[in-house]
Amino acid sequence: MSDAKKAVLERIRQVGVVPVLRAGDGGQALALAEALIEGGIGVIEVAMTVPDAVDVIRRLAQNFPEILIGAGTVLDAETTLACIEQGAQFIVSPATDPGTLEACRRSDVVAIPGALTPTEIVYAWNAGADLIKLFPSSAVGGAAYLKSIRAPLPHVRIMPSGGVTLSTVRDYLAAGAFALGAGSDLADFRAIAQGRRQDIIATARAYISAIELSRAEQAS
Question: Catalytic residue positions?
Fold first, then answer.
């Protein structure tokens, strides 16, 4: 693995949570990202379901060079390359697409494909995944499922996603999560639409505090 990939993975691990931005338009997504960044989140994932998502990635990469910007809900190599060209430093998918993994490999960009079962996880890992998105995690048992998966696959880096909440941070990290993928519980675009920007900032800070506390407990 290249030093560049190692640095991106280490940044994801250090921050501990990757908020998934979903919004009704690009402006809303940018406003949501800015609130999360103000709340202390140093990693942002822009879902391809956001209108003009690739342009949102470009603008975030230009305006916040100190933040790790990634693309989410990426389904093919063409989209992967378009996102990388605009500044995406990691690519997240809900499933495992060989073309997407190959595009990431050729571009030396971190690949985070989605997988759920042991067979899917091993396939994705052997195909070149740098980190596995365990999705949809909460639907199949949450932290308990992750712990069961980690027992035979301790070498695989896993990021649970799908239904992750502030109240489950401690359990997921204790079960061996490399980091967490958080959706609307953290990156709530409705709060932006309703003018509740401070709520997003407060939630971001609460996630960071919960992660720090959980890791301190594990280290003691």
Answer: 45, 133
